[in-house]
User: Which sequence fits this backbone?
């Protein structure tokens, strides 16, 4: 009986020690996670040396923390840039009004009102674009419905007023995608506005199917975009010097919104090299 009790005690101690060693990495991970706050996402949990489920869990946790930290950095940068773009013109307008009120008899008030109205309209455009991006960031559950991409493109082109640059079309029928029609229409409008600002003689819109993918391209024969700038233009508030010159009232958010709309449809928006000019390409899955 005594020998049995001793054996049971030894076995119990062994099991306790084994379980303790097994759970120690979990305790270490818990302690590290407890140190994480919304203002400091730099911590990472320790990854055990042995290959098992706990190592896999630690790896997944660290990957998730990496994504959260990157998202927080983007949010902080976006907030800072939005504040700057909204605050600077407002401050300038206030200073102009204060200076004008110091000597109101010498001020051309109709001209000043027209200039200030132009600035207010630009701020309104920025605010609307910021709200659109915020909605896209917060809710990716777009109202999808089966849509003929060529038909949608044709309908949007009919709604546009004639512009400085003519628009040519190469629309393949039967390219059916599942999409939020309003969002894709917004994307197409932004791409067309951008293309017509930069085109030299023509803009071409094309729709086609490639395997199980619907493809929408908007091409302009303008000066094109240098390779090193082809990702920068999709960043929020990014504006190249040529863009600022051609469209001083632009918000720098149009292409960022387009890319977010593409991502909301499990698609991509990229720039492909046409040899001359600029070719923006939307790819999204065909509907089942």
Assistant:
């Amino acid at each position: 009986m005594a020998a049995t009790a001793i054996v049971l005690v030894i076995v119990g101690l062994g099991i306790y020690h084994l379980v303790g060693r097994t759970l120690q990495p979990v305790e270490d991970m818990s302690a590290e996670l407890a140190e994480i706050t919304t203002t400091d996402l730099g911590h990472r949990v320790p990854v055990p040396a042995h290959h098992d489920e706990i190592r896999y869990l630690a790896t997944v946790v660290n990957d998730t923390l990496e994504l959260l930290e990157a998202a927080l950095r983007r949010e902080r940068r976006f907030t800072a840039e939005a504040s700057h773009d909204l605050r600077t013109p407002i401050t300038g307008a206030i200073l102009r009004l204060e200076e004008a009120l110091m000597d109101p008899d010498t001020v051309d008030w109709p001209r000043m009102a027209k200039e200030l109205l132009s600035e207010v309209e630009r701020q309104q455009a920025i605010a609307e674009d910021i709200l659109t991006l915020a909605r896209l960031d917060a809710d990716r559950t777009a109202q999808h419905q089966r849509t003929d991409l060529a038909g949608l493109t044709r309908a949007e082109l009919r709604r546009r007023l004639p512009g400085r640059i003519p628009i040519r079309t190469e629309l393949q029928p039967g390219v059916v995608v599942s999409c939020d029609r309003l969002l894709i229409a917004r994307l197409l409008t932004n791409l067309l506005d951008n293309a017509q600002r930069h085109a030299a003689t023509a803009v071409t819109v094309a729709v086609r199917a490639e395997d199980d993918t619907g493809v929408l391209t908007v091409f302009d024969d303008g000066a094109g975009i240098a390779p090193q700038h082809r990702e920068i233009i999709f960043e929020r508030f990014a504006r190249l010097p040529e863009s600022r010159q051609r469209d001083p009232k632009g918000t720098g958010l149009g292409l960022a919104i387009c890319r977010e709309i593409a991502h909301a449809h499990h698609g991509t928006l990229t720039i492909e090299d046409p040899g001359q000019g600029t070719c923006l390409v939307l790819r999204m899955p065909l509907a089942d």
Observations:
- DSSP finds seven helices and seven strands in the chain.
- The CA atoms of residues 203 and 220 lie 5 Å apart.
- The first strand starts at residue 145 and ends at 148.
